[in-house]
Amino acid sequence: MKLASFDIFDTTLIRKCGLPDNIFYLQAKRLYPENPAKRDDFFAWRCNAEQQAIEVKKDRNISLFDIYTCKDIQGFNEYSVQQLIALEKCIEEENLIANPAIRQTIKDMRTAGYQICFISDMYLDSAFLSKQLKDKGCLQDGEQIFVSCEAKARKSDGTLYAQVRNELNPEEWIHYGDNKHSDVKTPKKFGIKAVLVDT
């Protein structure tokens, strides 16, 4: 089997708002439109919350739920954890668009007989990512998503690539991604052809 794998964020999908932190800024504005101090407090908290969750759990493979529950967020108790998570996902969805060049590459690779999968070091769950990729014309039924927060393995250290190889057993494998380390250097160590995507 021939496999073509694609990184998700900043490769297959791009945020209209730019950097990931801008999602948190938009979320803070939505939560506290009339309270600049609370808006700034939430933005600062969310910018640091991922690293705090990693330190608390002693694990880099954290989920969005981990981020919102590993540290006390009583300062924002006007909202439940579920409401905060739902709003962050909503704003992500509003801002995600397909990279047209990669969407075309995915189609071309399918036509050439490659099986397609998506691989991401990310705290967002595969159900959410699947919906975004399908809605934007990148994912078809039967194609898999491997995400670090569920697999408990990462592209950056090669363990997620090893898991994909174990499950799919490709004879030929090419990976596309924007990160020089986790999308190019690491897969090459595992004998995977890697293509750097410059977005």
Task: Tag the structure with descriptive keywords.
199 residues; alpha/beta; 5-stranded parallel sheet; two-stranded antiparallel sheet; 7 strands
Structure summary:
With about 200 residues, the chain is α/β, with parallel strands linked by helices. It has 9 helices and 7 strands. The protein has helices at about 20-30, 35-55, 65-70, 80-95, 100-110, 125-135, 150, 160-170, 180-190; strands spanning about 1-5, 15, 95-100, 115-120, 145, 170-175, 195.
Helices, strands, pairings?
Blueprint: E1 2-7, E2 13-15, H1 21-31, H2 36-57, H3 64-69, H4 81-95, E3 96-98, H5 100-111, E4 115-120, H6 126-135, E5 144-147, H7 148-151, H8 159-168, E6 172-177, H9 180-189, E7 193-196
Describe the 3D structure.
- The chain has 199 residues and is of the alpha/beta class.
- Helix content is 50%, strand content 16%.
- The strands form 2 sheets. Strands 5-4-1-6-7 form a 5-stranded parallel sheet, with helices on both faces. A two-stranded antiparallel ribbon has the order 2-3.
- α1 crosses α2 and α1 crosses α4.
- The chain is globular, with a radius of gyration of 18 Å.
- 33% of the residues are buried.
- The mean pLDDT is 95.
